[in-house]
Amino acid sequence: MTSNSKGSKGLNTLSNKQLERIIAEIDQAIEWHQSWYKQLLRSLISNVPANKHDLSDNAHTFCEFGQWFNKLPTDTKKLHPHFSEMGTAHQKMHQGAKVLLSLNEAKSAIPVSLLDQFHADLDTLRDLFEAVSDEFSDVLHTRDPLTGATDRTNLLSHLRKEHERCKRHSLECAIIMIDLDHFKRVNDEHGHAAGDKVLVALVKCIQSHLREYDQLYRYGGEEFLVCLPETELGGAKSFSERLRASVEELNINIGTNTPINVTGSFGIASVSVNDDIEQAIERADHAMYQAKKSGRNRVCVT
């Protein structure tokens, strides 16, 4: 089962800890269903009495996975379309199990076609479990562990895919390079732990301004790259000016009596249909250095 791009965009709203928790819960759900399946086989093959809940019309609400799934917040279920598919597949699988168990309780022969259909439904559910767990894990493993921004591992491949999509629809996108001003001074004067808190605060600030389909990468050190799909140069400049002002207004608690403030330099490059991603990144980087040379805490456009 392939990864769904809509799903992965929604996952960007989750923190690393939230992703880790959901991955652990889905892995637990896989174990729950394996145990449930073993009990089902005991009932069908060895005539062990079936669990009365498995014979009910709403059996899918009684098993451990069903109880967990029903308690999931609506916002979490909307993060990935596979969650909706999972709920439907889970209910269908339990309905098939109920038919098998009912026939077994009545001492009636179980048609091979019903057994095959049940196993097909069970396989579908397992595929969904694994697909969601794998995709969540992929997102987690390509994130910077400190800030939660996507790391550079797949940056070029992601940007090329976005560029190809924009080319197909004759759209522009924009790239913004962001670098904190005088970050070395923060580390030297307050320590690296304080510097880490500054980076975390910066990323939270940037993420609060992003649309669902925008993407943030930690490019290196205190340098970050933002991709704004379907955005022309003017829109990217307005966005950057708003973000620059928000960064300047941050009061970052570093564990001392006095919070600290930082600023950032922003460089913007538009990526047109016939453009080259690597060259666009270089232009954004050059514009960012122009912002620094011009006095820092400002936005420059190539």
Automatic annotation (TrEMBL):
Its EC number is 2.7.7.65. This is diguanylate cyclase. Residues 171-302 form the GGDEF domain. InterPro entries: Chemoreceptor_zinc-bind_dom, Diguanylate_Cyclase, GGDEF_dom, Nucleotide_cyclase, Rev_trsase/Diguanyl_cyclase. Transmembrane segments: none annotated. NCBIfam families: GGDEF, PRK09894.1. SMART domains: GGDEF (SM00267). One of its GO terms (molecular function) is diguanylate cyclase activity.
